[in-house]
Amino acid sequence: MFKRKKSFSLEEIDNGHYKVTYRGVPCVKCPFDYVLYQMIIEEVKPDLIIEIGTNKGGSALYLADLLEVRGKGQIHTIDITDESFEIVKSHPRINLFHNGWKDYDLNLAAGFSKILVIEDSSHSYRNTFDAINKFAPLVSKNSYLIVEDGIINDLGRAKEFGGGPEKAIREFLNNNSQFLICDKWINFFGKNATFNTMGYLKRIK
Ligand SMILES: C[S@@+](CC[C@H](N)C(=O)[O-])C[C@H]1O[C@@H](n2cnc3c(N)ncnc32)[C@H](O)[C@@H]1O
């Protein structure tokens, strides 16, 4: 007879999240964060989402579909490779950039009024810190700079990533008082029950 487990581990959720697909496209996010994202989009109503780290494009597709339902908005998704699925490439709300975030011209965001930025690339401390410093000025007041995968610390992998996103966030916040960690999203399902630990940064001024 089936016996229900009384608990499950972070490692099991981590293993599962690598297998998630959205409309058949791999989409590497923690289940809790999908729910938060759709609420954040409803709250912010962005007309531009910049995503650093496309991979196969599942997250860009998910976000683009949410924008499509609202009838407004574009995604600029940036990677260093071109591995996204055809359904992603052909989505009218998705614009793909393949030369890495350093080559992204910030002027491409001119003319958009509500901008949300997601950093989901290599997760190394240095890369995360540099990327969020470049893109933070684009984030609109009352919108978010979302820094993915601080969870690597809880998974015991921070050293591998030079301290990872959490270290980058801490240092970034020291010099950027216009952002604060938004407890509403961080603690939505329980304290830091997200893979984006410390990573929902709200622009308050
Ligand atoms: C964790 S995956 C992105 C996952 C995707 N956002 C999703 O949720 O399905 C990280 C991606 O970042 C890309 N990447 C690494 N360095 C980058 C850089 N300098 N600029 C842009 N993308 C980069 C990698 O090639 C990889 O595809």
Structural descriptors:
alpha/beta, Rossmann fold, seven-stranded mixed sheet, two-stranded antiparallel ribbon, 7 helices, binds S-adenosylmethionine
Short description, anyone?
The chain has 205 residues and is α/β, with parallel strands linked by helices. It has 7 helices and 9 strands, in the order αββαβαβαββαβαβαβ. The protein has helices at 10-17, 31-44, 58-70, 86-89, 125-135, 164-175, 183-186, and strands spanning 21-22, 25-26, 48-52, 74-78, 94-97, 115-119, 144-147, 179-181, 200-203.
How would you characterize the overall build of this protein?
- It holds the Pfam family RMNT_CmcI.
- This is Cephalosporin hydroxylase family protein.
- This protein is an alpha/beta fold.
- It has one domain: Vaccinia Virus protein VP39 (Rossmann fold), CATH 3.40.50.
- 32% of the residues lie in helices and 17% in strands.
- It has a seven-stranded mixed β-sheet with strand order 5-4-3-6-7-9-8, sandwiched between helices.
- The longest helix is centred in the first third of the chain and has 14 residues, at 31-44.
- Bound molecules: S-adenosylmethionine.
- S-adenosylmethionine binds next to helix 3.
- S-adenosylmethionine (SAM) binds at residues 27-29, 52-55, 58-59, 78-81, 100-101, 120-122.
